[in-house]
Here is the input.
Amino acid sequence: MDRETDFILRVRAELKSTTWDVDIRNNVDTGAAPPPLAQRPIYAMDQPFNSGAADNPNMDLTATTGWGGASYTGPRVAAPFSILDTIYSAILFVDAVDPGVIFAPLDAFWSVDNRPVSPTDIDLGDLPTSFYRSDLDSLFLLGAAGLDTEEFDDHVVVHEWGHYFEDNFSRSDSRGGPHGLSDLLDIRLAFGEGWASALAAMALDEPIYCDTASNTTGFGFNSESSAIPGFTEGWYNELTVLRLIYDLWDSDDDGVDNSSIGFGPIYAVMTGPQANTPAFTSIFSFTTSLLEQGTGQNAFINSLLADNGINPTGIDIYGSTEQNDGPGVNDDVLPLYTSLTLGVAETICVNNQFDTGSTGNKLSEHRYLRLDLAAQTSVSFSMTTVAAPSQPSAGFDCTADPDDPENTQHSDPDFLVWRSGQFIQAGFGCEPNSEVTPAISLIAGEYTIDINEFRFSDTMSPAAFPGRICFDFTAN
Here is the structure.
């Protein structure tokens, strides 16, 4: 380097190696023809330097936060680099138990214009919240000052990266949607959110989860504790899943949490049996596989299950022996799965008893069926509403707007057929009170079926629509 030379040093917010590739980009582009997200600009910082008189000058760079003490008064240069550093911590945590593992390329999008509003428009920065998009291998983080800033909320960043981990190393059957810490959730959602928060606590080696909102507000909780208002521990709660997984890993003695299996067995289950389980992904599929790993710590694992309101006796991937159906006396929660016999109708009811916001993702709104085929078989599925709340009116038109008042008074049964996480077939038509699919050839093996009532998540449903709907389901 020439002495006494003026130059500009540019540092890009990216991580590059033979095993990982992470870029922090700005998603906001209000132009007439925004480029694809993967081509949006990568953040960088520039700093002028003079090489001075030394042959090998030291060059120290400081990425400033822009915080002026009561508000932001300058560019928030540090934000993308803080996000990058947090993701790097998560990468190193995984790499420590599986050195050289290949991480799928990841774009993390952040902007000072990313704000929590609805409807979503990524180009404008209008986001429902911070989230991960599996179809884009990308995570999106809020950054609007005075509303919600995530760049220094390390647990939030790793939580979203935890969904990236599931998507690329494991599997998630979660249907997503709004959720709260004390909510009673669909088993798939409860596991996915609990896993992501547990991974954040483990990777950061910090049990205190903190999520700031505006400059003076936010919320937090301790991964070691479930002491929040309205909390009921059980397999349907994300805090229960978080606490259980974190206690499996951490080495701090706390009641029955008096040992640790480390991250290695957890990683092995997530990347192996959990990714391939014939059941839907849940705390049952996770812990059953963990008990089969041969860690020598099954007594410890069982004690944690019992301490978190989950029955360890005879536990299997389907939760067949579970008895906890939530607080109070509740219908339509257990058993978690109902086995089907070809040609025999099974009556199953769904219930929105735990859903006050028409989100369609709470406990008992989705019910699960199992179909085990000994040989390749041609199968059709039918689902008919029992005691339907309304018969089709003369004005019903399946091709019209499904939210038309003429159409929302009827039951709308839906179902999805899966095989070890692979989508097979859907019954998603809008015909009232029934759903029938054409026959399809299915290879031998076990299939899981998710049934639900669409009206439970339809904000146009009439106020008098029943909160409990039963169906006759048949595999023919």
